[in-house]
Design goal:
Blueprint (H helix, E strand, L loop, with lengths): L17 H38 L31 H17 L5 H19 L6 H6 L1 H9 L2 H7 L6 H20 L15 H29 L5 H27 L5 H7 L9
């Protein structure tokens, strides 16, 4: 009878075979990448659908606006203002992404440093919300309605730092991840086996495209926010494309590493590497 494989509902110890044991622990890296991809794709969709159909919140002009999204009505009074129902999901999702970026160890020191710095940026985006300025209070219908429904927001807005920490950290997050995709993602391509070497140009092009999209995301969002004066929800969809690009990167990286078996069979992957492959230090 075959040895039962370890699993979530299984108390059997990991296999004693060294190669099988290595594969067992390598699943942690797969889980981290898969989790980051799932979080990225689910994050904007969950903010909208849960906010719309559970809390009757309209689509917000940006994902950041869900931090203090609330609606008072004759039926509920100001109940939403006591909890800002989507704040938990917004902050929790970003903290989960930050944790994943920090815990994932890059193949090179540069990649690891970039991912750790990106994790700090994601955490700053979560804990320093989008500012409410005097211009918003007098010219933004959504913010004026928010202050009317939830007067305490006005006092809260007055105690926020003047520096645009939220926006700067969000822009830096995408730029850092773009650098990872542009400069670091291709380091593992040399480990592709011979029967998958023909895919290397495709992976290189895909990583370049994803990097470019992550670079363009913050710039596009900034320009649209300025031109539209925060009207509509175009910025939300720009941000959604940006974070889905982030998810696509991790999904593609997961597929690439599954082809090279760099984690599950590092010995075989090392034998596939070209003699001049980069030093992963």
């Amino acid at each position: 009878m075959d040895r039962t494989q370890p699993g979530l509902m299984n108390n059997q110890p990991p296999p004693a075979d060294a190669q099988a044991l290595w594969r067992h622990f390598s699943e942690t890296y797969f889980s981290l990448r898969f989790g980051l991809a799932v979080l990225a794709f689910a994050f904007p969709a969950f903010l909208y659908f849960w906010g719309r159909f559970v809390h009757d919140l309209p689509l917000q002009p940006s994902m950041s606006a869900y931090f203090f999204a609330a609606r008072a009505s004759a039926e509920t009074g100001a109940a939403q203002c006591a909890e800002f129902p989507m704040r938990t999901f917004f902050v929790g999702g970003l903290c989960a992404i930050a944790a994943g970026l920090h815990l994932y160890k890059g193949l090179t020191r540069r990649e690891n440093t970039l991912l750790n710095t990106a994790a700090i940026c994601a955490l700053l985006v979560a804990v320093y919300p989008e500012r409410i300025t005097g211009k918003d209070l007098s010219g933004d219908d959504r913010v004026m309605q928010l202050v009317k429904d939830c007067p305490a927001v006005l006092d809260w807005a007055g105690r926020q730092p003047d520096l645009p920490i939220h926006f700067a950290a969000a822009a830096a997050l995408f730029v850092l991840l773009g650098i990872v995709a542009w400069q670091c993602a291709c380091h593992s391509l040399s480990y592709l086996p011979a029967d998958h070497k023909h895919r290397e140009p495709m992976f290189r092009r895909a990583y370049r495209v994803l990097a470019a999209l992550m670079f363009l995301g913050p710039a596009t969002g900034f320009v649209l926010a300025a031109l539209l004066d925060r009207g509509g929800s175009v910025v939300f969809f720009v941000e959604m494309v940006g974070i889905w690009t982030f998810g696509a990167y991790w999904a593609l990286k997961t597929w690439e590493l599954s082809l090279s078996k760099l984690e599950k069979d590092p010995g075989a992957a090392a034998r596939n590497a070209a003699p001049d492959s980069p030093d992963p230090r």
